[in-house]
Design goal:
14 helices; 321 residues; elongated; 8 strands; mainly alpha; single chain; 3-stranded antiparallel sheet
């Protein structure tokens, strides 16, 4: 897409609306309120500025400056003339194309910084006096791209604080476990792969667990990350458990433990009857397979994937094998 489309329609006339003699426009991106945030979310996590700056740079480099001027500026001439019902003047776009780069300076707070509301996390201004209009032309796409990673990082931090507070009250010696308690499944809920990367990387500022594989690509591409980015475990889904049939569920458990004799194995266990899996005494799958479970060199996770969490945990209780 021609990146000149990446703005609000009303901004397309602003090059002629500033006072004569304007040479610089200086703007900022500021979190204004946390009134819609989860309880306890009183500080914002500064995150995503490097990623979105690279995204904007790449969009203009690949889809504007590297394309013929007549093609990209002609497209805007044609489309905006119809959009505004006028003979739209694209000379300012043509001059930008001739310049060959975006004449802007972006500054930001260090990513990972906890920021109070109403404190700017990013500023932007033009570095060439003829292109003062570019600053706020880019404001829309900056807002569009930066809101999600910063919001996801902030929510993840809030959950991290909550999990840590209870970890310290119950088993402080295993504080490392909190790294894995908040797990990300952005790939299943976001509206695009780019959104998965944006939200998923925000989540990884506070946690290590993720099933959103595009975040690995995003971390390498936008942050030059090396080494492990995130992690998960071998795990089943309902289709696996269904395939073995309800009558043979215990055989499915056996086959899985043979396939994965060590490390963590997470088995979704409410496909048929969670109670039947965890109930004590003969006939309970975990009870009948106790020796095989204990012989594994690793943890077997019995995972309910649906239902009311309070009822699942408190209603069934903990079964001692």
């Amino acid at each position: 897409m021609n990146p000149l489309f990446l703005t609000d329609g009303y901004k397309t006339g602003h090059d002629r609306q500033y006072p004569p003699g304007t040479t610089r426009v200086y703007s900022n991106f500021t979190p204004r309120t946390n009134k819609y945030a989860p309880a306890g979310c009183d500080l914002l996590v500064s995150f995503g500025q490097q990623m979105i700056t690279r995204q904007i740079h790449d969009a203009f480099a690949n889809e504007f400056f590297s394309k013929p001027k007549d093609e990209v500026c002609g497209e805007m001439k044609r489309e905006l003339s119809m959009y505004l019902n006028t003979d739209y003047d694209v000379s300012h776009f043509e001059r930008l194309h001739d310049l060959g780069y975006l004449p802007i300076c972006i500054k930001s707070l260090e990513e990972g910084t906890l920021v109070p509301m109403k404190v700017p996390v990013l500023t932007i201004y033009n570095t060439h006096p003829d292109f003062f209009w570019v600053t706020n032309y880019l404001e829309t796409i900056i807002s569009n791209l930066l809101w999600k990673p910063m919001t996801s990082a902030t929510i993840a931090h809030t959950y991290r604080k909550l999990l840590t507070s209870w970890q310290e009250k119950t088993d402080a010696e295993k504080s490392w476990f909190v790294d894995w308690q908040g797990h990300d499944f952005s790939m299943r809920g976001m509206d695009s792969v780019d959104a998965v990367i944006s939200s998923g990387l925000g989540h990884l500022t506070s946690f290590s667990g993720s099933d959103s594989l595009p975040t690995i690509y995003g971390a390498r591409k936008y942050y030059n990350a090396e080494g492990p980015i995130c992690g998960s475990v071998n795990a089943t889904e309902h289709s696996v458990m269904c395939a073995g049939s309800k009558e043979s569920e215990i055989e499915t458990f056996k086959r899985l433990m043979v396939t994965y004799p060590d490390a963590i194995l997470s088995v979704v266990s409410d496909t048929w009857d969670l109670t039947g899996v965890v109930k004590p005494g003969e006939g309970g799958i975990c009870y009948d397979l106790k020796d095989m479970i204990m012989a594994r060199d690793g943890k077997l996770v019995i995972r309910p994937d649906s239902g009311d969490p309070v009822d699942i945990i408190c209603g069934h209780g903990r079964t001692e094998l």
